[in-house]
Amino acid sequence: MVAGTRLEDFLREHTTTDISKTLMALARACTVIGRMVNNAGLSDILGVTGTTNVQGESQQKLDDLSNQILMDYLTQTEICAGYLSEENDDIVTLCPTGKHIVSIDPLDGSSNIDVVAPIGTIFNVVNRLSKQGDVTPADFLQKGDKTICAGYVIYGSSTILMFSTGNGLHGFTLNTSDSEFYLSHANIRVPEKGKIYSINQGNIEKFDDSIKNFLNYCSATDKETSRPYSLRYIGSMVADLHRNFLKGGIFIYPASKGEAKGKLRLLYECTPMSSLIENAGGKSTDGKQRILDLQPGEVHERSAIFIGSKNLVDKAESFLKN
Ligand code: AHM
Ligand code: MG
Fold first, then answer.
1. pTM, rounded to two decimals
2. 39 partner at 20 to 30 Å CA-CA among 13, 20, 117, 141?
3. What is the whole-number distance in angstroms between the Cα of residue 16 and the centre of ligand 2?
4. Superfamily holding 7-185
């Protein structure tokens, strides 16, 4: 027995036919990816391909397969004009007459695949700026506040699609019996007062003093603010943020010595997550500016990010300004 509205029915009622088509293609592709991730240990698809992506990171076989599946499903919609992926060096034209531009991290946190920790697919959709024909970099280099649909699918103990088309953040859980997504988390609000902080604290030596001071604040004892806060870090942005969306908290991937703009990519990691958090009443900044106000300069650009419950992001900012 399944409770909740079916994704397709929900979209018919709450968004445009165009967005529904793109979102349904993403949902169907992620259903296939989720099945592949679940069964990964049984087929020869674990491990690395032996190649690196444009950012010099080693590619897992599942990264590659997921990327291919997403491109195939999006091509079939005939509405998706252009595709940018962490796994492709260049932007790709999928349908010259299409309207949408999709930026994707096909399998985020993929270094966690082999140890069966939760991983995910992150996506961001904007309208194309060029008229027809091949897409151009300018189609992709739009500020985050131009996003018309953002989301992720987490492959964990359940497979859940979380998305926003600008009217709140909604979660749909995959029913493995009929391979359909059903509404399970309507209109999620990020708790305003989070008590969790998530950061790779092992990099502390490379952080600015302002970040070290904020981390000291989080781990200090104070009854009134319920400190010390709990440190939780999976090393998979989708999983760390999914927890913080539901329970409240802050996720930080700061700039550091050797990584002047942090590690995470603006167009297909920071922007979609920032769009989701703002739709759920939370906040996201690179430390100086709202992430959604940043003008991307190139498609694989990185950005520092402080994202989560408003009280904690405000607090982190107060340290950064000191
Ligand atoms: P990926 O896109 O290559 O998987 O890298 C992104 C991941 C994020 O999911 C996660 O937050 C981060 O890398 C963890 O990095 P680190 O191991 O430096 O803490
Ligand atoms: Mg990633």
1. 0.95
2. 20
3. 28
4. Fructose-1,6-Bisphosphatase, subunit A, domain 1 (3.30.540.10)
